[in-house]
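Cross-check.
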Amino acid sequence: METKVFISMTKDELETLIIDCVNACLMNDKTRKDETPQDVLMTIQEAAEFLHLSVPTLYSKASRGELPVKKRSKRLYFSKLELINYINEGSR
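Predicted model, tokenized:
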């Protein structure tokens, strides 16, 4: 069974406590987002949606070597990090 403790505090003390807790949670969330993202392999449909391109366009770009792609059996897989790098290379 949990032990519950009741304390008395002023409205200002309670507000400060809540603000401090919220700020601590936001800082923890920010540090989690700053971590290096893990690579995710996407299917051609997922990659097309991610890049806002049609599936036939992706097939064309992959066959011409314009897009980084991995092939296993008859399927194509795209690394999300490599696609992000591909997009970033296009900015000048």
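Strands lie at 41-42, 70-72, 75-79. The chain is about 55% helix and 10% strand. Passed to J.P. for a second look.
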